[in-house]
Amino acid sequence: MRVFVTVVDLGSQSAAADHMELSRPVVSRYLAELEDWVGARLMHRTTRRLSLTAAGSETLPRCRQMLELSTDMQAAVSEPDEAPRGLLRISVSTSFGQAQLADAMAAYVKRYPGVSIDMQMLDRTVNLVDERIDLAIRTSNDLDPNLIARRLTVCRSVVCASPAYLREHSTPQRIEDLSQHNCLTHSYFSKSLWHFEQDGEPVSVPVQGNISANEASTLLRAAMAGAGVAMLPTYQAGVHIHSGELVRLLPQAEPRQMNIYAVYASRKHMPAALRSLLDFLVVRFPQEPAWDLDL
Questions:
Q1: CA 227 vs CA 20, 164, 167, 179, 245: distances in Å
Q2: What is the CATH number of domain 2-77?
Q3: CB of 274 within 8 A of CB of 268?
Q4: Which CATH architecture does the domain made up of 86-150+260-285 adopt?
Q5: Global pTM?
Q6: pLDDT per residue over 34-87, tens digit each?
């Protein structure tokens, strides 16, 4: 079953053989044995590509479930003091992955060398089950109620611009002034309307600009290059504000806060590695994150 799943994921028998350190004849034999056991042909084999038969499409998700169950079984009977091990696939936004999670994962695998981390930098909401993601780091105030979430920390944002941009344009003094500036916007979040809290009241202002992007790292680079005013998460922009590369604007008005969660699909048969990673992240990212200090 593991050979079958690997062939499908990698797209060829030769790639699966290399990945699993098996010979190609052995891979072919295992596939044939699985087909004999199932009683149906699972794959169409041509010289150019492999494709699943109808029986293969039915069998694939069940094989994945069987493999996950075998992993859970091993974790369930392991010694309590045995160090976590195995592969964890994590989905995270590009900005948080680059600014914070990469360093955190380096520290985690140093502590638990038996665990391998596969970080998927994706600026979209993934289906954890379909895409075989063990854990997703999500910034949101509206999570899917069917998923299990463990809150990690708060995500604050700042409005900022480069000194070069501010030398050429007047510095905004009020939230309403942003409508007169070239604002760099996120394609999917608050593209035309920025939300704030001022004096305990929610305030929104329409914005527009000539650059938008579907992830915050690009907006950060554009802002540092002097292209305009950006609303960026503090976990990403804070270091550049401290260095003087960016200037914080409108400190009296705070952009709407969001929460950062670790999201997973099920509490049942949770592998020891995933449990240890969750505990590690809770400590690594406390309620008042270090990146907000002195900002």
A1: 48, 9, 12, 15, 13
A2: 1.10.10.10
A3: no
A4: 3-Layer(aba) Sandwich (3.40)
A5: 0.69
A6: 999 999 999 987 656 788 999 999 999 999 888 877 776 766 665 555 789 999
